[in-house]
Amino acid sequence: MIKHARTPVIRVNGSGTINVLPDRSSLQAGVITEGKNAAAVQADNSEASAAVISALLQLGIERKDIKTQDYRLEILYDYTEGKQTMKGYKVTHILDIRVPGTLSAGKVMDEAVRSGANYIAGPAFEVSSSAKYYLKALSLAVQDAQKKAAALAASVQARIIPQPLEIIEHTSGGGDQVMGISTAAFAAKTVPIEPGQNQITAKITALFSYQTQPAQS
Description:
alpha+beta; 5-stranded antiparallel beta sheet; 4-stranded antiparallel beta sheet
């Protein structure tokens, strides 16, 4: 029986990261109203929400970029000495707003508060052409894996074959986290929001074969 020699291999992980300035953002703005009468609370909320939407439209945001993310009518209760007593109603109307690159998120947040919003969350910054940058990050990840494999091979007096036998791309989901903040934090001036840079990262696992180098005399 003929035994075939096993090809020596090195398996390594590689990662690549591209830093990109975001060119668009999104945030949430809403109106929360409370009162004794459900119809009155709902009417007050509708009026205030309409004012916020109108202000956003005047600012230059298109109606297609403003959508209701959450709308709720809740009963409020008081708990005293173990007894539950209804104290009124609460209406929450939260808008999801996509901010074009021509506007600053801070200006939109400021205008939303001025027009009646008492709930703000965000902003989240995004890169519109992230797929293009992800491909570049993938290429960097392969290069990173090649360098690691070459370093490992050199440590045992060997050299890798640069073309990997196998490449596995690792994908993972996730999104920006936003936190609700009180409108009391806003001053008279526009909120100074700094977008910074977004990191677009790709991760892979690659398998390389390697060859031992003859010992030098």
